[in-house]
Amino acid sequence: MPGGLPSIGGRPNWVRSNTLAGQLAQLGLGASDIRYIGLTNSHIDHIGNLEMFPGATILVQRAEWNFAQTHPSEDTPDGARFNAAHPMALIDGDYDVFGDGTVRLIATPSVTPGNQSLLVKLPKTGAVLLSGDVIHFQYGWDHRIVPGNVWDKGKTLASFKRLADIMTEANAQLWIEHDKAQSDMRRFAPDYYE
Ligand SMILES: [Zn+2]
After folding, report:
1. Distance of alpha carbon 146 from alpha carbon 153, whole angstroms
2. How far apart are CA 30 and CA 32, in angstroms?
């Protein structure tokens, strides 16, 4: 979206000059090639561009779907977090997306009731755990600081433990997507990890 999603009430306006469509095009892909979208949560910085993929199934925790029905977003013009007509799979807890253990949704209730993380097992890179919004910064993870905007503090602490246990079991790296220092180190499309 040129210029990004218009901000409401003076909230930040996030913009990337290389759009999602542009990154996909660099990979020789179009929106119709995408089968699944794993949704971390229904905050404004996670739901942009969903309607660019009308044929893709959104994998969302049922708890997040229910939350969205009773908690209108302050950041969208009509308060909606999802288009109810979009193909959606409502997930209860962890979910093995392809049935072979390579991509697993991990339920990590925290900032919202249906926040989820993603465990990806790559042949060369190994296991990578994408935190989602359970934690926003490396410092917060190192010191186990619960973010101020969480839906449930106790569940957030339990989700911290869950992530730490998975890191041990799967020998996984933790990627904290909101951490700028980490983000600056990552390769982005059309570059990739094997
Ligand atoms: Zn976020």
Report:
1. 7
2. 5
What is the per-residue pLDDT across 18-31, written as a single tens digit (0 to 9) for each?
Answer: 888 899 999 999 99
CA of 153 to the centre of ligand 1 (A): 17
189 CA distance to ligand 1 middle (Å): 19
Distance 4 CA to ligand 1 centre (A): 16
| pLDDT value for 4 | 73
Q: How far apart are the first and last CA of the chain?
A: 30
State in Å: Cα 11 to ligand 1 middle. 14
pLDDT at 113: 96
- Tokens at 130, concatenated: 């994408």
In this predicted structure, the answer to whether residue 3 has a pLDDT above a threshold of 90 is: no
Q: Which residues surround ligand 1, an ion (CB under 5 A)?
A: 45, 133
The pTM of this model reads 0.90
What's the gap in Å between 84 CA and the centre of ligand 1? Answer: 21
Domains and CATH numbers, the chain: 20-185 (3.60.15.10)
